[in-house]
Design brief:
Radius of gyration: 18 Å
Order of helices and strands: EHEHEHEHEHHEHEHEHHHH
Largest sheet: 5 strands, parallel
Oligomer: single chain
Structural class: alpha/beta
CATH class: Alpha Beta
Number of strands: 8
Keywords: Lyase
Strand order of the largest sheet: 3-4-5-6-7
Family: Belongs to the DapA family.
Shape: globular
CATH architecture: Alpha-Beta Barrel
Strand content: 5-15%
CATH superfamily: Aldolase class I
Protein name: Dihydrodipicolinate synthase family protein
Organism: Bradyrhizobium commune
GO molecular function, one term: 4-hydroxy-tetrahydrodipicolinate synthase activity
Helix content: 40-55%
Number of helices: 12
């Protein structure tokens, strides 16, 4: 089982069927499309994928479905975090059984202000229960949502105990200085959550990005990675403009709306409560901005 390759990952959105249930087949096909569109990999079952609202049994079935579709293990970082230790372990076991060793694990976010000792116990119990030296566990720092930050002291203690199994961290704090502060050992991969800092992050030693908006900007992000010099600077400016624009809207419904426009499939607008779609005013504004940025009708998008 390979560690996740470095580069641009999309925190994949999840298709919700007309019956209100998540659609496993469409999620898998969508992940394949994201890679074809330019992503180095996908991060399904994360925040943008509405994972906290998804049924546990659905989450448990995703790894096997990804494997059946032939998606490479080093192109997947699978969301496995849960307030329930047992659920996180069960999802981890399903992932490892399907050949996917890269797990993105939120802290147990229902319990507020846990001690670092408690968080150390949580992550240690997951690793010990999985009992697989091939595991690559990525910590997930998104304190504005979880209210549970991942401290540097906790990272150091887990690394001291488990070594390379603690493979990296996704920093979704929205603070680039925070993300850079985790950069250290070469085998500890740091992923900011915005492609607006893709070039600067790579220069600072980050491994790439894991972003909700690369569901839309995958092709442009790929072009940034391939370019150099003045061309890269110009492409990064376009990529930054895109990210700064789309993040003015509620991100999940905005990403789903753009994908629905691109595919002509309004089914992508469905979300799990309490999330709701954009207002008419927001939808009109988003369309104007995406047309300005050339992001509507892009045939390179995932289908």
């Amino acid at each position: 089982m390979s560690k996740a390759k470095k580069g641009v990952y999309a925190a994949a959105i999840t298709s919700i069927g007309a019956d209100g249930e998540p659609d496993l087949k469409r999620l898998v096909n969508y992940c394949r499309g994201l890679i074809a569109a330019g992503c180095d990999g996908v991060a399904p079952l994360g925040t943008t994928g509405e994972a906290a609202a998804l049924p546990f049994l659905f989450r448990q079935r995703v790894p096997e479905a990804l494997a059946a579709a032939g998606i490479a293990p080093d192109a997947v970082i699978l969301g496995a975090g849960s307030p329930s230790l047992g659920d996180a372990i069960a999802i981890g076991k399903a992932s490892l059984a399907a050949g996917y060793s890269n797990l993105l694990v939120l802290p147990p976010y229902y319990t507020k202000e846990p001690s670092d000792e408690g968080l150390y116990d949580y992550y240690s119990r997951i690793i010990e229960a999985l009992g697989d030296s091939r595991l690559h566990l990525y910590l997930y720092h998104i304190p504005q949502v979880t209210m549970v930050p991942i401290s540097h002291a906790l990272v150091a203690r887990l690394r001291d105990k488990f070594g390379r199994i603690i493979a990296g961290i996704k920093d979704s704090s929205g603070n680039f200085d925070s993300a850079k502060s985790y950069v250290g050992p070469e085998d500890f991969d740091v992923y900011p959550s915005t492609e607006a800092v893709l070039t600067a992050g790579l220069a600072a030693g980050c491994a790439g990005v894991i972003s909700g908006s690369t569901n839309i900007s995958a092709a442009l992000a790929r072009d940034v990675l391939r370019a150099s010099g003045a061309e890269r600077e110009a492409l990064q400016a376009r990529l930054t403009d895109f990210r700064q624009t789309i993040q003015k809207f509620p991100l999940i419904p905005a990403v789903k709306q753009v994908h629905a426009w691109r595919t002509g499939d309004s089914g992508w607008l469905r979300m799990l409560p309490p999330l709701r779609g954009l207002s008419a005013e927001q939808t009109a504004s988003l369309r104007r901005e995406m047309e300005r940025l050339g992001q509507i009708g892009d045939a390179r998008d995932a289908a």
